[in-house]
Amino acid sequence: ANLARILNAGRLGGTGRMVILPVDQGFEHGPARSFAPNPAAYDPHYHFELAIEAGLNAYAAPLGSLEAGAATFAGCIPTILKVNSSNSLATTKDQAVTGSVSDALRLGCSAIGFTIYPGSEYAFDLMEELRDMAEDAKAAGLAVVVWSYPRGPNLDKVAETALDIAAYAAHMAALLGAHIIKVKPPTEAISLDAAKKTYASHPVEVGDAAKRIAHIVQACFNGRRLVVFSGGESRGADSLLDDVRAIHAGGGNGSIVGRNAFQRSKPDALKLLSDIIDVYLSEV
Ligand code: FBP
């Protein structure tokens, strides 16, 4: 029922597609780097309002942000409590548990959100933490959203988004029991150097952007799990919309767009989010 709340909300309600606003960048990257481009975004109420006015499916954020808006926006939009967090001052590719299933229930959330870093020295700990939290979340009827970001000593920036690595990370999130899997849009395939004694995949057809998305969907149980793709750093609307068209054409379930939304002025963000939703409402 909680997954259905997300799927049935907003302008995309009932289509199987979704657009989510994630605002954990203040934690992950720092406040000024995240919010200085649009200072209104220092206020967590701003993000609730933006997601609601844009007709999005859900708003995802860490504990403090959801608590700050709970009294005002209760029941106005499905929320996802991000229950682990990293920060840019840290020296390890790890995440601290910063929220709980009982916090999510107290705040009326529809889901918990959890980041894993396949490839990190801490990947197994993160997966075991996710296993425990997902069991509790599911027992309480909450959906589980997994941010699966390949990251670690053997993965450079190119490998982090490489198609075969991204598909592997997405598949592990599905195997860990995620209802919604979140990855970055995949770039070209790359099998890691055998000399490094790390992952070397079966060759994957690189294809165009839509074919790459289709391969990620295939890795998420052939479409039996929902998969959404992040927006990344703020950039021109045309480039972001090209990604969204490829996600739509490749059978992805939607977008989770943070910086490209809240770092723009509100009218510009509303226009861009509306254009993104229109893509998902169009015929493939
Ligand atoms: P964006 O649309 O801003 O990229 O948000 C998606 C997201 O996953 C956030 O939830 C998270 O804070 C951020 O990307 C992490 O980005 P990175 O670790 O690549 O800097």
Automatic annotation (TrEMBL):
UniProt keywords, alphabetically = Lyase, Schiff base
GO molecular function terms attached to this record: fructose-bisphosphate aldolase activity
Question: Active site: which residues?
Answer: Y149, K182
Entry protein name: fructose-bisphosphate aldolase
By sequence similarity, the record places it as follows: Belongs to the DeoC/FbaB aldolase family. FbaB subfamily.
Which terms under GO biological process does the entry name?
Answer: glycolytic process
Q: Which InterPro entries match?
A: Aldolase_TIM (IPR013785), DeoC/FbaB/LacD_aldolase (IPR002915), DeoC/FbaB_aldolase (IPR050456), FbaB-like (IPR041720)
Superkingdom: Bacteria
- Which EC number(s) does UniProt give? 4.1.2.13
Tell me any Pfam family this protein matches: DeoC
